[in-house]
Write a structure and sequence with these properties.
Layout lengths: L2 E4 L3 E3 H9 L9 H8 L3 E5 L2 E4 L20 H5 L5 E6 L6 H14 L4 E5 L6 H5 L9 E2 L7 E5 L2 H14 L3 H9 L3 H7 L4 H6 L5 H15 L8 E5 L3 H39 L8 H19 L5 E7 L3 H16 L4 E9 L8 H19 L7 E6 L8 H11 L2
Parallel strand pairs: 5-9, 5-10, 6-8, 6-9, 10-11, 11-12
Antiparallel strand pairs: 1-2, 1-3, 3-4, 7-8
Bound molecules: adenosine-5'-triphosphate.
Protein name: ArsA/GET3 Anion-transporting ATPase-like domain-containing protein
GO molecular function: ATP binding; hydrolase activity
Pfam families: ArsA_ATPase
């Protein structure tokens, strides 16, 4: 049984657990409100580990990781030009918690920050304990500088897209596509029976919706203010498809252009028979512009100055093997990757129970694997401890961020 003591306060484990679990009820309050709640200095002790929290707002004095890891946060936070951080890895390892805590930390360090989820199974709302659904930018209350969150729901968007094409006889499709930054595709596909196409969507359409939002970051005024953009990406497979999508679209556009040219020459032939002129702007030219946009995105993802992919993993053989493959694929795609976060490491303990002793041995073996892995060993390893409460809401994310990102 855990006990919590403080020079000023003595509280029980269950009190503290429910207190931390209830952070989200207060997430609409200003930070200063929290200091009233958090003005205590508890020391948490369990049979199998210890974690000291000695400052307000859960900033941690001594970090309960096996070794102090330096993440190079100074480098991540320096400079006011825009930087993109994409966090990805196997399902359930803590990508969202790490991405959200990094976004909070950036915002608390003066960066107007946007955190975006491209995972169809979003958990950003759960992590921030705030409703972030709806596909629009939602302000997150709490940090010192503006923090906005955006959950892109590609499946929902595709549904909306499909029903628009059915109910509006195609005209709604154009509006919707315009909204998604894909208006040019709608223009060009209009004559190719888009509704039918969506009943059997081509592979990668979900990611196309997500990536079109990324294109908007580059072009729209609305997103200009953000100097840090953190992506909470979908599990490994999706992420790799997202990264290779510009190539996929590049190839698809090539096919569409050819198809379009065939249609145009066929209709021109018919029109010339009836004496009508072809007045539409050159389709191939428009598509070529879209292709250029995609190339811009592809370059951005590979720009070592502005972009970094951070692999998140846990100390298990399965997760590390998958991370190693992810790292190899990222390197093959020339995506900059410098850091690996190893999350959920057991905090140190002087008296482990049998279960924790076994688990610790297992984790030590897995950490050793990273050190000798041909792909992962060259990365900066960031060790993040397993904490004994669920990380939900801005104060809790700030707490995690201060432990992980140093
Ligand atoms: N260091 C940690 N200590 C304790 N719990 C953690 C830690 N990191 C993450 N968790 C918990 O693990 C669960 C999964 O975390 P999270 O949602 O961040 O993972 P994910 O990789 O984004 O998952 P998914 O692949 O499903 O999107 C959550 O309940 C979260 O609170």
């Amino acid at each position: 049984m855990a006990s919590y003591t403080s020079s000023a306060t003595k509280i029980t484990a269950s009190n503290l657990m429910s207190f931390m679990g209830n952070f989200h009820h207060y997430s609409h309050l200003h930070k200063s409100h929290f200091s009233t709640f958090l003005n205590f200095k508890p020391t948490l002790r369990t049979n199998c580990g210890s974690l000291s929290i000695t400052r307000r707002n859960f900033q941690v004095k001594s970090v309960a990781t096996p070794t102090e890891s330096i993440t190079g946060f100074d480098e991540m936070v320096s400079g006011t030009s825009r930087k993109y951080y994409m966090l990805g890895g196997k399902g359930g390892v803590g990508k969202t918690s790490c991405a959200a805590s990094l976004a909070v930390k950036f915002a608390n360090n003066g960066h107007p920050t946007l955190v975006v989820s491209t995972d169809p199974a979003h958990s950003l709302s759960d992590s921030f304990a705030q409703d972030l659904t709806g596909g629009t930018l939602v302000p997150v209350e709490g940090p010192n500088s503006p923090l906005f969150a955006l959950e892109i729901n590609p499946e929902k968007s595709r549904e909306e897209f499909r029903s628009a094409s059915q109910t509006n006889g195609g005209s709604g499709v154009k509006d919707f596509m315009d909204g998604m930054g894909l208006g040019m595709i709608a223009d060009q596909l209009g004559e190719l029976k888009l509704g039918e196409l969506l009943d059997t969507p081509p592979p990668g359409l979900d990611e196309a919706v997500a990536i079109s939002k990324v294109i908007q970051f580059l072009e729209s005024q609305e997103y200009n203010m953000f100097t840090r953009i953190v992506f909470d990406t979908a599990p490994t497979g999706h992420t790799l498809r997202l990264l290779s999508l510009p190539d996929f679209l590049d190839a698809s556009i090539g096919k569409i252009v050819k198809l379009r040219q065939k249609i145009t020459s066929a209709t021109s032939a018919i029109k010339s028979v009836f004496g009508q002129e072809e007045s539409k702007p050159d389709a191939a030219e428009k598509l070529e512009k879209l292709r250029e946009r995609m190339i811009k995105v592809r370059e951005l993802f590979r720009d070592t100055k502005s972009t970094e992919f951070v692999i998140v993993t846990i100390p298990t053989v399965m997760a590390i093997n998958e991370s190693s493959r992810l790292c190899a694929s990222l390197k093959k795609e020339s995506v900059p990757v410098k850091r690996v976060v190893v999350n959920q490491i057991l905090p140190p303990s002087s008296s482990d129970c049998k279960f924790c002793a076994m688990k610790r041995k297992d984790q030590a073996r897995a950490l050793g694997m990273i050190e000798s892995d041909p792909e992962l060993s060259s990365l900066t390893m960031i060790q993040a401890p397993l904490v004994d409460v669920e990380i939900r809401g801005v104060p809790a994310l700030q707490f995690l961020g201060d432990i992980v990102w140093k």
